[in-house]
Amino acid sequence: MQHWHWLIVIYLFLGGLGAGAYLTSFASEKGWLGKNSRLNRAGYFMAAPIVALGTLLLVFDLGQGLHKPWLLLRLVFNFRSVMTWGVYILTAFIIVGLITASLLFKKKKAPNGLTLVGAVLALATGAYTGLLLAVIRAVPFWNTFIMPILFVISALSTGLSLTTLAAHFLEKKGSSNPKENKVHLILVAAELIIAVIFFGIMSAGVKGPVASQSASLVMFGTYAFAFWGCFICLGLLLPLVVFVLEYLHCKKSGQKAVSESSLAGRETAAAVQIKQQSYLVLASDLGVLIGGFALRALIIFAALPIWDGKIL
């Protein structure tokens, strides 16, 4: 019996995607993704609108968005509710994100304090999308501390992929570099490990028979194709292989160029550092986005609720 449907899936995906995009540009701006990165603006521009769209969908899904919108005001004052925390986090993040994007659009540098606050709120937004599920005890498949961790890692990975794709087509200045691939390799590997742990725990019955049944639906039942095809193969294994090969290729080319000789070698090595990403890498980024969406759909649709030990 499904209580949450496609609007919630899209909201959870967009919330993490926007948060991850913001954090990507923040990391790029700080130099954590290599020198002369192209990713220091695109994420800032996309973050707030994406999260705002997702939040709007959430309002409509609550059932009161079109009929009795004034009832939503109760969320603002119920401080024991995780959804109330989300209202403040999402609102603050959207405001900070819009201010940051507006300053960049006017070709002004956003204050470091502002972007740092935005980064903290972005991280909170990514974690909140998982925490929103984790606190629901009536659904054992969701009720685990692993859920926010999985959603944060997925948010960082999908945000990096979206920002990379946008920058490739829109940004004329800057370039891509092996460090971006290395970071994404780490994120995809971490997501794969956490996903294995999560589904392993659920299928083993640690959270009870209902959670085990949900895991079986995902891995061997109704949703097996989406799980193995879209999430595991397209969203994790393909990007993992591509990012490994790309990183090793760039590293090997750079070492070869440096060993050739002095100035010429260093110039060639620098050229390797700023080489354009291949279309295979971009296709992998698209796969990461599909996998991230599939993950949230699987977690929502396969979850079976339980009350008093009985499946409804």
Q: List the secondary-structure elements in sequence, H or E.
A: HHHHHHHHHHHEE
Structural class: mainly alpha
Give the DSSP E fraction (strand runs of 2 or more residues). Answer: under 5%
Q: Which CATH architecture would you pick? A: Up-down Bundle
**Arithmetic mean pLDDT:** 85
Q: What is the CATH H-level superfamily?
A: Formate dehydrogenase/DMSO reductase domain
Estimate the helix proportion, in percent: over 70%
Total DSSP E strands: 2
The coarse overall form would be: globular
* Main sheet specs: 2 strands, antiparallel
User: Could you give the order of strands across the largest sheet?
Assistant: 1-2
Would you tell me which CATH topology applies?
Formate dehydrogenase/DMSO reductase fold
**What Rg, in angstroms, do the CA atoms define?**
21 Å
| Total domain modules | 1
* Cα distance spanning the termini: 6 Å
The parts where pLDDT drops under 50 for at least 5 residues are: 263-276, 308-312
Count of DSSP H/I helices: 11
Class, according to the CATH hierarchy?
Mainly Alpha
Your description of this structure?
The chain has 312 residues and is mainly α. It has a single domain (6-311), classed as Formate dehydrogenase/DMSO reductase domain (Formate dehydrogenase/DMSO reductase fold). 73% of the residues lie in helices and 1% in strands. The protein has eleven helices and two strands; from the N terminus they run H-H-H-H-H-H-H-H-H-H-H-E-E. The chain has helices at 6-29, 42-61, 74-77, 82-105, 112-134, 146-170, 178-203, 209-219, 224-260, 262-273, 279-301, and strands spanning 306-307, 310-311. It has a two-stranded antiparallel ribbon with strand order 1-2. Helix 1 packs antiparallel against helix 5 (112-134), helix 7 crosses helix 8 (209-219) and helix 9 (224-260) packs antiparallel against helix 11 (279-301). The chain starts with 5 loop residues before the first helix and ends with a strand. Mean pLDDT is 85; it is low at 263-276 and 308-312.
